[in-house]
Design a protein that fits this description.
With 144 residues, this protein is of the alpha/beta class. It is built from six helices and five strands; from the N terminus they run αααββαβαβαβ.
């Protein structure tokens, strides 16, 4: 079994998100995010959804370039957006803009099915491969 060298970095990132949420809780209208969202953030290997040249920055709470003049969203933003959906295990989600699939993977952890649409064929192809390597069978990606 392969060792996940980034597990500690994910835990630190989730702790940073918790802290950031507490600092802006008035603006968010809630003091904490759903624990299910934070568990998904702690589980999904963000480093697997960024290009190799920026993997070292995968757990820094910032957007990162993924090619084609696109970025992977800042983890705090992913957490807040996902929390606002209040997803349940049987929910079906439509995501617009797959990118390399990180947000898709977070959604797939929480929902029964995720349909994602990506305009850039290369990103969609890479996302399918990355999501497949992580075992996400409840995701369908369409290029449109």
């Amino acid at each position: 079994m392969a060792t996940d060298h980034f597990e500690v970095e994910r835990e630190v990132l989730v702790a940073a998100i918790r802290t950031q949420v507490s600092l802006v809780s008035a603006e968010l209208g809630k003091p904490v995010l759903d624990e299910r969202v934070l568990r998904a953030m702690a589980k999904v290997p963000r480093h697997e959804f960024v290009p190799a040249e920026v993997q070292v920055y995968a757990y820094v709470n910032m957007p990162l370039p993924i090619g084609h003049e696109k970025t992977i969203s800042q983890p705090f933003v992913v957490a807040v957006m996902t929390d606002s959906l209040d997803l349940r295990p049987n929910d079906v989600v439509l995501e617009i803009g797959t990118g390399l699939g990180y947000q898709t993977a977070i959604l797939a952890e929480l929902a029964g099915k995720v349909y994602s649409v990506e305009l850039i064929e290369d990103l969609a192809t890479q996302a399918k491969r990355r999501l497949g390597r992580q075992g996400y069978a409840n995701v369908e990606i369409k290029v449109s």
